[in-house]
Amino acid sequence: MSTQEESSITDRAIAESNAYEIIRSRLEKQGKSLETLTETLNKERLGEFQSAAMEVTGRLRVRTENNCVARDIVQVGDQLLFGYNVFIGLKKETLIEDVFTLYSLVEDNNQFELKSVPIEGSFLSQPSFTSDFRELYAYYKHARLIQLMVRNGKLLAAFQIGERINDLRVFRWEMMPSGELTYIDNRGERDVKPPSPTDFEWQAAGRDFAVQGSHPHLNILDTLFVETIGGDLTVKVENNTDSGLGIHNEVVSDKTQALDDAKIFYAEVGQLILLKILPYREEVWRYLVFNRLTNTVDRIDEIGQSCIQLPEDHGVIFPGGIYLQNGEIRRFESDVSNMRFKRMIRSPNGEDVLYLFYEPSAGTYALFSYNLIEKSLNNPIFGHGYAIAENGQMVLFSSESDEPTRIHPMQIWQTPFISDEFASQQPPSDSFYGRIGNAELVRGISDLYSVIRSVQKPEVSISHYNQLIKDSGRLFESYYWFESPELAEVKSVVHDISNTSEKVLDEFEKVESIRLQAESAMQEAEAEQKKILSSIRTDSWDHTENFVEALNQVRHQRGHLMTIREYRYIDKSRIAELEAELLETQDSLGSDTVHFLASEQALVPYREKLDTIGEELEQADTLVKLEAALDTQEKMAADLDLLSELMASLRVDDATVRIRVVDDISEIYAKLNQSRARTQHKKKDTGKSEATAQFGVQFKLFSQSVTNALNLAATPNKCDEQLSRLLVQIEELESQFSDHDEFLTDIISKREEVYESFEAHKQTLINERQRRAQNLMDAAQRIISSIQRRTAKFTEMDELNTFYAADPLVIKVRDISDQLRELDDSVKADDLESSLKGHKEQAIRGLRDKQEIYEEGGNVIKLGPTHRFSVTTQELDLTLLPRGDHQYIHLSGTDFFEQVDAPELESLRSFWEQNLESETPEFYRAEYLAGQLLEAIERNEIEPDQDLLKTVRDFAAPLYKEGYEKGIHDHDATLILEQLLTTKAKAGLLRFDPMARGIALIFWADIQTQAQALTWPDRALSATEMRRVFSDSTALEQLTEEVKASLSAFIESIALTSTLESDVTLDQASRYLVEELSQTELKFSFSQYAKDLSQELMRSLKLAHSQESFDAALDKLKGQAGQRWQFISAWLHALLSKKDDKFKHYIPEAIALISLGDSLSGETVNAPLEMKITTLLGDHPLIKSDENERLLSVSFDQFLTRYNHHKHYVVARYQRYLQLRNSIIDEQRKAFRLDSFKPRPLSSFVRNKLLNESYLPLIGDNLAKQMGTVGDDKRTDLMGLLMLISPPGYGKTTLMEYVASRLGLIFMKINCPSLGHHVVSLDPAQAPDATAAQELNKINLALEMSNNVMLYLDDIQHTHPEFLQKFISLTDGTRRVDGVWKGETKTYDMRGKRFCIIMAGNPYTESGEVFKIPDMLANRADIYNLGEVLGDKQDIFALSYLENGLTSNKVLAPLATREMSDIYTLIDMAKGREVSTSDLSHAYGGAELNEINDVFKKLLTVQEVVLKVNQQYIHSAAQNDEYRTEPPFKLQGSYRNMNKMAEKVSAAMNDEELMQMIEDHYQGEAQLLTGGAEENLLKLAELRGNMTVVEKARWLEITEAFQLKNTSENAEAEIGLQIAEKLGEITEAFKFSNSTKSTEAETGLQIAGKLGEISAAFQHSDEVLVSGQAQLETVIKHVVKQLHLIGTSVTESSKNTALIEQMNQISKGLGALGKDLSHTLAQPRIEAALLPQLSNISDQLQQLKGSVDSNSSQTDVAEQLKEITQGVQFMGRELSAVSDTAKQRLSWLTNLKKKS
How many domains are there within the chain? Predict the structure, then answer.
């Protein structure tokens, strides 16, 4: 591909790369800038050193005495030696005059003449020479002069003495410094030996260079890979022996030659590699040039004649042209055959080099002049001889023919090739350029132009731009003077070009990659086409298939070409060539195909194939064979279709041929169709049975695949993958059995089943993933909350960083983030990482605050140097607190309490004071732990260890909610459990409570004979065995429930329900009875304690002689179990009334024993049930101290009852209480939205100098008045209000949220735009909508909280002033305000409360009008404007823009969490101040520092613009509309604007791009204004100082229109002031300077006095205008009268009639002005009448000046009247607008400050 074609592709590539186009555009601008600077530099160089161009300055003709053939001319000192050959037939001797003539060049009036100089006395007449000369012609009759030259201080004259050109005799003269020549001899043959044709050595590439492979080649410098095998010479740039393709190919004669048959030489010349190649059996060498920069190869055979390197590694020159390093070639059409390099001449200025090539046979010279700066080669100058003088003047002659002649034309040229001696005669220069030197400057300028050309060259290659970067950098390495201040601009632009070139390399790589793909596709297509075309040999084909296949290949190749045509950067012209070649081949091949088809043997193979198919069909007995037969038939059908298409599309001249061929094809086709039909029928019959079996197998395999796929589908994505795979399989199944309709129903059903199964499975996985992701996110949020609390306690930065680097919580959060990403939930992962990062930055800032502004361990904070405030560390939260008989909602840290109305909560009052579910005043938590362990041991859930304490501790470890203290309660539980286990082993069924056992006994005694009860013993025994054998308690539990139901009915029937302690007793009684019944021998167990108690009663009765009456009473109650129970119980209680009550516990069992007597068989178990546990460590009311021994008395059976009651009743009720309590708290938290009241400063917030030194002290002053400070000097008369005024984006809300967070205040932010202008009450019921009601509720909630609250009303400009007035009483000393909470009106008293109110607003409302604050509120407020510089804080205010913008810029964001001193040091560095990087606390790399410095420099530019915008906004907002001279300016220069632009700032931006970014930002901002976008942008341009002429004109037009509008609206109030002021100026202009002439002085005083009266009269004109326009005419008449007096004074003093006349005209003009004023004051365009009259006055005064100028005695008067003219003209301009000097500025903000 040629260089031009590649450039075309590159242009398209560049056009499609947007990013590259931007950078390329920048590079081109920089290139143009450098070109301009370089041209200027070159012009200055030429001005310093001058330069001579190669130009013809004259022509002349030289006449010789005889006809001759001129041969050469040479400069010898001041003379010219002209040589020629004379052919004189009969002359016996050849004289010196017949060969040489001496001339001197004479110039006269730019006319040149060669005057002959006598030979006598010259060096030609020296005897030794004349002798040798005669001898030459004596021996060599046909000797002829060949060449004259001066070389190495010698004059040489070469004569050919033989037939060959190199048979020479050379005469030599030595040239003395004085100019004299002395003949040496005639043996100078060596002196005329021509120089080498090259200035480099050719290196042979031998066998050592060979690289073997499929396509071997020679490796040259690991850059080029050359071979001549395979029929062509190929040059590759990849060491790839798998492919024979390269970047250059040429055909060679011998296609069978081996790799080492060719002769290959190379030479490395800078970025060029020259190749010299002679393929095998060829005689002509080929010369190639490879360019590393362009990656191209060019064939230039001329370098075989001569090739010389250009200066400064520019390239090479050869006869007929040059090749530059950048790939540029320039050739000339002239014949340069057989020319060889002769000589090179450099000009002393270093700018030009002259290359001479010489053809010795004809004696022809070719002179090539090369300019280093322009890198250009001038057209060659051809001649037969030249002579260059010391001053650069050259004489050139050229023979017009080879015939002898007496007239010889010559040209005089002026060249820059002066001699060094001549150049040294120029006086030295001490200028900047003179010190550098012309040659050095030329080299530098040449390299600059090289850079410029590289920039301008639209080449897409990495090497090109790498070279550009290299060339740019080399300028500073090679030329020290580029660092000079004089070339600072050049240096800057070159640096910019280098930097931009580096940025463009990435884009180039992308474009080049795509282009190389296109080239690769093209090469593959060419190779494939070459293969196809070479395979077409129609002469040797004897089968139709050959022709058909060839046509198919041709068609396919055409389709492939159409495909690659769409590739980007493909060579479409080459595609067209290839396609044309294919079309030509297709036509030729089609014609051959028709001729072949017309022959008899063409279709014979098809007929034979049909016969073969028929035979195969007869033998086919399986579907496989039938399918093969069908495939063969289909292929044959396709071939026949193609033949039919061919015959339809191919051109056939003979119609009969077409018909015959088509008929033959149709006949074959018909037979083929018959064969296909038979095959189909046979296949259907044969395949039906096979298909059924095959379908069954494949359907079963598919079902198994479904099962496997469901198992593999572990994620939703894999579900889709597996489903897609299965659907493809089922589609294949359907297509396979599409001929069998009976299978389709099964296939369709299976498809639906698979789809539904996978969709259900996928949904399950999605739900699981979402649940998992949400659980992870919730866990992470809890961890982050914990992290936030923990980091708040750190006091050292290292501590904090260590925590975030290695703490398990932080690591866990990061691990959760990774898990979320694995779950494909990158949104949550990003949120989590951002949250963690934000909390870290907040922690760093909080720690910095703690170190700098907190005191007393963080409990006190300093706001400014004076005030210290207490810090609330208790976080805002909602809880339930019992107060009296009710529960109340309480907001922690505030005075908010609200009663809860929840009946169920009231019913659980006994649990309000309980803190743990494991402990109550009646049950010790260690008992509960021991009971749980005992129950688990009974159920075989745990096996007690030998170390029982370890078992207890392991069991208690996960029960953290139950509040067990390690070492205390586990110790006590171990002691209790030891006794329980010991007692349990002995007690047996006595473990059940005596009440339960007693009730069970009387129940069983009553029911044992009933049918239902008769089955219980057997069932109990069986169920017990089931539990023992199978560990299944189901049957046992069912029986227990059945017994419990009967028992409950029995107890109710005998009226003993009231005696039961709880439902637990009934449950225990039924379990006890079942356990007793499960014994093989029914024998009930009785405790010794009950036995003793019953015996004691009997003994007491016997001693009292009452036993008989007792027994009689019992007998009467027989059958009445309930009454018997009550009777016996009364006796037993009476018995124990005066005794130890420890036996009262056993009364129910004793009752049963006495009541039942011997009716039930049983036995007494003598087991100790009473336990005393000592050495306890816990604290509980049940634990008593006895003689310094802490003990707990426990009855075993009573313990179990208490344990069951606690577990099943207390714990359940307590958990219900907690559940209810938590649900109420959660519900109330949602209702109150507490999280929105917690201050959360932005993560980008930076506590900067402005806050520390300005804002925080101001805020501290105000809060000291509102909340009071820490210490004895705290104010008790709390009052006040803080009001912050500024445009949006200055950080009002962020600032106050930060203060609230540091003070620990609740931040109750009220969004005033939601309230709007219709809300004037604090009653939510009167709100116009839900959002307004919500904001009012928040205000009232803040008042309800009372304490520890910051009430922040944001954007108050959107509210009604009457609404704001509601807060007036809150801001004065009463500190009271009326509100409405829950529909009830209240008066809130804030005296002594930690409560403050802040209001914030914007100078403008949403409609663009100025906002007015109620005076009464403003008087009570401290008002500050955050957008306005306070006092001497200008520097830190400006600095705050940079500080706040740090986090928005990705380069500067890390600085926000580092030491602030680093930030200030780096900003100083960006400002150009001297700073030491060793002072930085953080270790910065050099590259990082440079990038930070660049970004800060650009941010300083942005800051400057934003500050100007801010100042103009504040200034405009403070103006009253009545006094404006231009439209209001509403663009903002806030922190928000700064941050938006900061995030777009990049170190790579240049100044132009930075300013464009700023302009684009405000362009977008202006579109959002309610109006006035154009005038705001024009004002911005004025502020930036870059208004264009068009913009200035438009701005003037807008301001004039605005002033006119204001003038028309306020004319009556301003006209008088303007006239008075301007006439005052005229008065000053009339005052004369001191003069020696008294009359003139007196006249001046009179004029000044009269005009003073005019001014005084007009001072009150505004009052006159107010009283009525009609009186204006009176005022003007007074003016006219005064002017008449002036005229009279002038007349008396000067008697100048012309002056008097002019004054009269002025008076008339002013009179007309008065009338017009009175008539047009109310009209909108006053200047329509004013301007013509004032213009007339101006003209009259000009005439006055002319009149006075004619009188020389009144010169001073003329000068003063000239000033009058200027004054009146100025008055005319000003009266057409509203003058600034006539206005009063009214600042609403200043007014507010005065009121406050």
Answer: 7
